[in-house]
Amino acid sequence: MTRGGNGGDSWMGSGGRTETGLALRHLLRRGFPGGRNGSVPQSLVIVTDGKSQGQVALLAKQLKEKGIIVFAVGIRFPRWAELRTLASEPQEQHVLLAEQVEDATNGLLSTLTSSALCSPAAPDCRAQAHPCAHRTLETIRELAGTAPCWRGAPRADAVLATRCPFYSWKRVLLSHPATCYRTTCPGACDSHPCQNGGTCIPEGLDRYHCLCPLAFGGEANCAAPKLSLECRIDVLFLLDRSSSTALEGFLRAKAFVKRFVQAVLSEDSRARVGVAGYSRELVVAVPVGEYQDMPDLVRSLDGIAFSGGPTFTGSALRQVAERGFGSAARPGQARPQRVVVLLTESPSQDEVAGPASRVRAHDLLLLALGSEAVRAELEEITGSPRHVMVYAEPQDLFSKVPELQEKLCVRPRSGCQAQSVDLIFLLDASASVGPENFAQMQSFVRSCALQFDVNPDVTQVGLVVYGGWAQTAFGLDAHLTRAAVLRAMSQAPYLGGVGSAGMALLHIYDKVMTVQRGARPGVLKVVVMVTGGRGAEDAAAPAQKLRSSGISVLVVGVGPVLRDALRRLAGPQHALIHVAAYSDLQYHQDALIEWICREAKRPVNLCMPSPCMHEGICVLRRGSYLCKCRDGWEGPHCENRVLRGDAPKARGSRQDPAGGLHTPGSQHLQWPGHPGS
User: Fold this and answer.
1) Which residues pair with 524 in a beta bridge?
2) I need a labelling partner for 62 at 20 to 30 A (CA). Which of 7, 260, 304, 454 fits?
3) What pLDDT is stored for residue 675 in this prediction?
4) Nearest Cα residue to 195 out of 178, 213, 181, 180
5) For residues 526 and 551, is the Cβ–Cβ distance under 8 A?
6) Closest Cα partner for 233 from 448, 368, 407, 447?
7) Segment Disordered: which positions (predicted)?
8) Do residues 232 and 328 lie in contact, with contact meaning Cβ atoms separated by under 8 Å?
9) Is the CB of residue 72 less than 8 Å from the CB of residue 87?
10) Distance separating alpha carbons of residues 348 and 381, to the nearest angstrom
11) What pLDDT, on the 0 to 100 scale, is given for residue 12?
12) Could you give the CA distance from residue 267 to residue 285 in angstroms, rounded to a whole number?
């Protein structure tokens, strides 16, 4: 039986009314087309909306009396009473709903394998009942109100005025509790024979093969040595479950997380994992650290459902920054490195750059896995091509497990983190740059600052902007943490006006890179200047003055054409990075960090720039330095004025406890971390 047009059924028909009775009469008269004359059991599957134009009860009864097993499969909103009339007993096993495809096919299989019609495919297959609902669409009449009407009275010459009811008709969907059946059979993969995240592929009832991750060499059952995640880290996987990614893409991402967890985590692992999904809103399905037992964590992933909806990656990132890691701090321990791993194959339908910067501002590392189609967006989100893993074919996603493991445990920040640096960013905020491009500069230097361990003992960061004048946005000693530095960078003012790079460099020399403003003697000093190139004509001499004082200067020139003034400003060729457009700054972050790391290997002169104030003279002495102060000044850096009438200092010289010469008007200092300290 096949469904006819307009909701009708006909024998091999393609339209017309629902004449189920005619079809049944045809079968009674001529038998099954191509049948084997009753030598084998016969079953009839009627697919119908159960709204036949004629009588079917007697005909169905005659078919069943001939020993034919009748299944009635309803479509859309069938007339269930008619389906039950058509179907064989027991009706709950022979009346099925076609829209519930899995239940209909399983119900058919369950009934066939449990009856005398055929033997089950495997002796251990079982038919299991579960509650479901039968739905029907019915038209009902409802009282809508009353209206004046006229009716005839008993007398022929009289009429009667009264109020008559009027009705409206509407269609309602009704559900009736029912029992459905499905058949489950044991398989070769039920025992989960594939180890270390391998995928079991059944081959018949009792054979299988394992699809292993590349890291496990394809050995039998993937029994190669496990990868390990030795670093102390909190990881939140962020899965795209929007309509654009589709159910298949979401299930693939979830399977990747399972494989990663099984392959990388062990009982003694110091890593903790959580999982969140997003479409319109972020849902933290498995909070970071909730499951310490790996099998429990894997089982919890099964409860994460596909949702559909729009792809709001930017909104999800913003919510991750606010509540993605909850209160996952480890008692009595410093906060571990926190990483967000984004898995998506669809472009975002909202803006991502701002929210991604906000995530990084919360000291979170962003990594991303996705298809080649979203590579550019993922690079914008993570801030670096090195933090992005892409694949050409969907099945290639699973080969990224070892690469992700490596990126998680090899901190992506610079290899010169342990080196002390006083770092000043100088941004061109003139009218020739414009506010939009200035905002891209801000984003770039924020991303660069993320690569350094900001604290008073390692890296200090300051920011200067210039346009019609030079302004210190914040000095070296103003902010003691990375988060504070990032917030302050976002608040840097755009000035406008005609810029003078030379004036700005002299401002740094005189008022920023000095001991009284937080600069540390004996520490590498770097100025990174980001400019569009205009207003740099007067900057070559001030830049050389900084370099002669031991301050390294790197010029990042932006624009399609590299101006000659920038070439002169940069001095040595290696101190210049040319970027074609402001939007491309993000792709040159690694080159900038590598340059700073190379500079960090140079020997540092404790007296360059001079730490001595008020024209004091710096003298090197056995790995330390001595400030010889002019008359009227004293202190370690000649910072204190000698008031008239003060008691005179002891005359002569003496050795201080550190072995340095101490005389009136001079101060001998040793700086921590240098010979002699």
Assistant:
1) 421
2) 7
3) 37
4) 213
5) yes
6) 407
7) 647-677
8) no
9) yes
10) 11
11) 37
12) 22
